[in-house]
Here is the input.
Amino acid sequence: MAHSHHVRPGGAGLAPAAVDPRESTTRLLRDLRTAVEGLTAREAQRRFEVHGPNALPHHAARQWPAALLRQCAHPLALLLWVAAALAWIAGTHELAWAIVAVIVLNAALAFWQEEQAEQAVEALGEYLPQHSRVRRDGLVQSVLAAELVPGDVLLLGEGDRVPADARLLSGALEVDASALTGESSPVQRAADFPDVARRAVDSPVLVFSGTVCTAGVAEAVVYATGRHTELGRIAALSARVRLAQSPLERQVRRVAWLIAAVATGVAAAFLPLGVFAGLTWAQAFLFAIGLLVANVPEGLLPTITLALAAGVRGMAQRGALVKRLSAVETLGSTAVICTDKTGTLTRNVMRVVEARDGRGAEAAPREEFATALARCTTADERTGAGDPMELALLAFARSCGVALHTGQRDAQRARLFRFDPHLKRMTTVDRVGSGLVVHVKGAPEEVLARCSTILPATGGAQPVTAQAHARAVEVVGEMADRGLRVLAVARRDVAEEPPDRGAAESGLCLLGLVGLIDPPRPEVAAAVAACHSAGVRVHVVTGDNGRTAAAIAHQVGIGAHRVVEGPELDALPEAELDELLTSGQEIVFSRAAPESKLRIADALHHCGRVVAMTGDGVNDAPALRRADLGVAMGASGTDVAREAATVVLTDDNFATIVSGIEEGRRVYDNVRKFILYIFAHAVPEVLPFLLFALSGGAVPLPLTVLQILAIDLGTETLPALALGRERAEPGLMNRSPRRRAESVVSRRLLLRAWGIMGVVSGVLVLLGFFAVLLAAGWRPGADVVGDPVLHEAYRQATTVTFLGIVFCQIGTAMASRTQRAALRDVGVTSNKLLLGGYAFELGFAAAIVYAPALQAVFGTAPPPAWALALMVPFPVLVWAADELYRARGRRRSARADRSHPLGGTRAFGDEMP
Ligand SMILES: Nc1ncnc2c1ncn2[C@@H]1O[C@H](COP(=O)(O)OP(=O)(O)OP(=O)(O)O)[C@@H](O)[C@H]1O
Here is the structure.
């Protein structure tokens, strides 16, 4: 996660002494007052005080006046500016000012909301601080990357992110410098390369903060940290990161524009209609502007941004760090999860539970066997660093009486052929006594294929016969079926160091097999069950043996209907792979090469399924980038994988992905909820204008323009925000995943907003309006301006329309809280923010109706008590109408479920029932 460290303001530190990182290493070390053994911890502490943390400065605080101005100038606001200008020209300065107030208040709200969103994304870095290995006090230690100082000696290896600018002292690396140079192919860097590059960034002996090591190991001395690094210099130049727009935001933006266009059309149409109804052109003009302002959904977009940001926060609390706002919504539509096995489904806490001799018989391991286990490792038992499987092997070797000190093991090692996920084995060449011994461990089929002899529990080595080979394969399969991870171990005496890997790994003697257990994580079974009820398929993609993987998959409830071995997958034509992946089966891809993940991610994407793909190694990065959602392991994964992924799991746990999906679905649902709420007011606001126009003026205008603005501004905002915080509704994880192409504004949503809640509200408020007028003796066509009694009644009547809409919106907000469930199932008072929103809404409305100064501006008059009483049931009626509609939908889907005896999950599609 680039740019994610934080610097306390003022902690910028001093510029480091000017050193030339490309001078000879001896001089550089002297200039930096350090040595190849690194600094002492105390000296590092002192330098930290001087140089400050190794972190990029926080994005300079936003220039708020400029940002606020930008909000006032976005396209929807521009539309409102035009309306304000027209109102001014028409001579209605009051309205013009009111519109300007709308713009400014909305801009302020949007500004605040975006600020919140950016903070949410920036804060993620704090959840997952980067660590680096350095030499301090003569020991290799893991320290926070933010605490590195010039002079520190770094240990870099495959998968590490380079934490600061450094000069290589020894070793060689392959580095992906694309973050810095834009060059996508990796470059070679080595301590002993001649340095003839012109630019520092091209120097073969330097590595830079922000780049990542894709292969090799090296030691390097840090010469620049924090903002003095190349990356720091670039970051200081570039502007702050903009929040990229998510598909949801794009959709909503389109909808907002559509509505703005319709509003403009309606307003234009109102002009002649208004004049026909008896208004002057100036008056008609004014009302047209009012209609326009009422219907431009200016607050919608920032509210969505805020909802997504709240989602990012919520997910982070549950252990899923989402690096882009849009990933919140993608997670919610996940249809397929492709998961690793080790560490994600299982705990990655291993223990050897079984050992077999070369013939496959259960026996205590011979000394050669235990020695091989101890020597063919790179993990460090003292610090617990390294592969948990190797730690288990070391512990086992010790229990067999072979206790080899880590330092001794490494000192006696002549050669190391690292574990390679393609070859699935690892080899060391060790000096044992006076001779050289090759030790190999790895996947049984790989090791077995390179053995020419086997060593029984007692006696001498025997040649591998077809029968012995078959027996070994059978034993491996039988162990794997019990969910054990099986490794084969082999050795060979050599006279001199083998020239290459191929030579080392041939003519081996099979020492035996070890079986390790790695129990499933306890939460995973429930999470898999949740996936199944949510219509999400789970495939396992693992480097392990198919039968081991299938056994583990079964233990946690993953179907594992088919096991596809690596070579079988490679031979599978695209069309068949697509068919396999869409067949509804759950598949275990075993002995899979990292490239297989890429192929599977591509195929699923091609079939239109949103796929979450987990990974942890350097080789997984391309698949993580290509999948709709790359999910990296925060605890055990490499920096490279974390950088490539969109989601990082702080606990590496499969169950956390599932909580992320739930959170994503909730956020998307909530966006729908406040769209529904905001849309619903359109009908009761537009209906009065239509009535006025269509009656040719016989019915006076039931609602004034400023009253509409008061609703938009005063009563709408807070309840809409509160809906964005609604909790998950029951049944959220019982629906099928949302289809990729599905629009956030569905027909069902419009039906509820306009057809049901809108119409009921419209009828109710007009009822109130006419009741007050008629009670005062009004008849159609009567003059409500000239007659003082009727005029007072008219003011009261428009006030009732205004209050009626406010009351109806209370019911609408209640009904909008669920999409399908009954409100009683989520609890009427469970959204405390919404209750606060109501209090604000009512207080605001009361001020407009009862405060004399506001009465004059908004043309209101306190209505008679009986009219108020008449409105009390409004919220309940609106809400009840929608409640009935939802109940009908639930009955229908229950019937549909019954008529499909196979059950299964119902389409989530928010289409009409
Ligand atoms: N350190 C190692 N030394 C030797 N062989 C290993 C080592 N680690 C793994 N193997 C072998 O290589 C196989 C593949 O390992 P890899 O790490 O690619 O996948 P995995 O950890 O089994 O599964 P997953 O992809 O689910 O994490 C293992 O099944 C094992 O046989």
Q: What stands out?
A: The first helix runs from residue 25 to 31. Residues 681-728+743-899 form a domain with the Calcium-transporting ATPase, transmembrane domain fold (CATH 1.20.1110.10). The chain has 35 helices and 23 strands. The first strand starts at residue 131 and ends at 136.
